Amino acid sequence: MSENTPHILVDADACPVKEEIYKVAFRHETPVTVVSNGGIRIPDHPLIQRVVVPADPDAADDWIAERANAKSVIITADILLAERGVNADATVLAPTGKPFTKDSIGSAVATRNLMAELRVGGDQMGGPSAFKKEDRSRFLQALDTALVRLKAAS
């Protein structure tokens, strides 16, 4: 993967939008690397590469963060990986289409840390919102927009 070519890095183990990623990537002829610690099925296509990392908790995050650059689009729901991606000047999107930016990542990390402290303290917390059709649509639009922007900057 060239540092000058846009590419998509997917934190894949719990990613609900893999099919959408492939659809947009094929349309833009953009390479995708699907990173997981399990045997996730991928399309048999020259643009799609699968990387299986050890089952260590941060192995996929580390692999992605080490390769992220200004031409990367990282897809993740993991706030700490999102922060690492933003710090590497990558475009970072949540599976809901929400972008993580230099302006928003600090508050996202702070909220994540607060929620973790509350859970450790025994507070009952709800999980994430259910994934909706609107999230999928917003994600498709956000990924398409990110790739158009990166290709125009090339």
Topology:
Blueprint (H helix, E strand, L loop, with lengths): L6 E5 L6 H11 L3 E5 L11 E5 L6 H9 L4 E4 L3 H9 L3 E3 L5 E2 L4 H16 L12 H21 L1
Parallel strand pairs: 1-2, 1-4, 2-3, 4-5
Antiparallel strand pairs: 5-6
Helix pairs in contact: 1-5, 3-4
Structural description of this entry:
- With 154 residues, this protein is of the alpha/beta class.
- The protein has one domain (7-153): Rossmann fold (3-Layer(aba) Sandwich), CATH 3.40.50.
- Helices cover 43% and strands 16% of the residues.
- It has helices at residues 18-28, 59-67, 79-87, 105-120, 133-153, and strands at residues 7-11, 32-36, 48-52, 72-75, 91-93, 99-100.
- Strands 3-2-1-4-5-6 form a 6-stranded mixed β-sheet, with helices on both faces.
- It starts with 6 loop residues before the first strand and ends with a helix.
- The model has no long low-confidence stretch (mean pLDDT 87).
User: What is the N-to-C succession of helices and strands?
Assistant: EHEEHEHEEHH
Inertia-based shape: globular
**What is the rounded distance between the termini?**
14 Å
Number of domains: 1
Mean pLDDT across the residues is 87
**What does the largest sheet look like?**
6 strands, mixed
**Oligomeric state as shown:** single chain
Low-confidence stretches: none
Query: How much is the radius of gyration in Å?
Result: 15 Å
Strand order of the biggest β-sheet: 3-2-1-4-5-6
Question: Which CATH architecture would you pick?
Answer: 3-Layer(aba) Sandwich
Residue share in helix: 40-55%
Strand content: 15-25%
CATH topology: Rossmann fold
Structural class: alpha/beta
Number of helices: 5
User: How many individual β-strands?
Assistant: 6
CATH class term = Alpha Beta
